[in-house]
Amino acid sequence: MLDLGPQTREVKALLDGVGDDRLAAPTPCEDYSVADLLSHLLGLSVAFTDAAAKKLGEATGQDPGDGLPPLPEDWRSRLPASLDGLAAAWRSESAWEGETQAGGVTLPGALAGVVALNEVLLHGWDLARATGQDYHGDPESLKASIGMLSQAESQEMRGTIFGPVVEVPRHAPLLDRAVALSGRRPDWSPAAR
User: Fold this and answer.
1) pLDDT 10s digit of each residue in the chain, 193 long?
2) In Å, how far are 44, 120, 171, 174 from 137, measured between CA atoms?
3) Tally of CA atoms within 13 A in the half-sphere of 19 that contains its CB
4) 106 DSSP β-pair partners
5) What global pTM score does this model have?
6) CA 92 to each of CA 1, 5, 58, 179: distance values in angstroms, whole numbers, following the listed order
7) What is the rounded CA–CA span in Å between residue 100 and residue 117?
8) What is the DSSP secondary-structure string of 108-171?
9) Are strands 105-108 and 99-102 parallel, antiparallel or unpaired?
């Protein structure tokens, strides 16, 4: 079992640094503005919380490519609570057992937990980059993310979820390695977009 708490706390700490004037700003996710990214984080938090509880339904069955709902006006209170709920849900041993569903895909609970952690980790980095904030990543979360992303080496295995691996020096920091394995450029900035 992995603890999603350290990573969700780091992402929550970024939220106060997201001014309303940044909501339309670009992010490393090419098709997402900051508002879109926040909406995605909110949706995935709910979906993976339900996946942990094996509460399969609308949240777990929705394909993430089906579009995003608009960012709710109360996102500043809802998103932190959803991130807390996500971390709490994955503290249960039963979350990591059997099968569940997320993004409309049935998968082992153990894999779903790592996918949830990876989503929070990478989208936290996206948010930090887009809003000019520091971000480090929890070391255990980074190791889990790198392990999962390293298994999806061929483009066929990567599908449409991750872009081609970006080359980084062999001794690059763990965060840069995870970001690069996801198909993102570790040196991305809004200005360089």
Assistant:
1) 899 999 999 999 999 999 999 999 999 998 899 999 999 999 999 999 999 999 999 999 988 778 889 999 999 999 999 999 999 999 999 999 999 999 999 999 999 999 999 999 999 999 999 999 999 999 999 999 999 998 865 545 555 567 788 999 989 999 999 999 999 999 999 876 5
2) 18, 10, 17, 9
3) 5
4) 101
5) 0.94
6) 9, 13, 22, 28
7) 15
8) EHHHHHHHHHHHHHHHHHHHHHHHT------HHHHHHHHHHHHT--SHHHHTTTS-PPPP--TT
9) antiparallel
Reference 129, options 174, 171, 176; nearest CA is: 176
- Burial tier of 67 (Cβ tally within 10 Å: 0-12, 13-18, 19+): exposed
| DSSP string covering 146-157 | HHHHHT--SHHH
The token duo for 3 is 């603890």
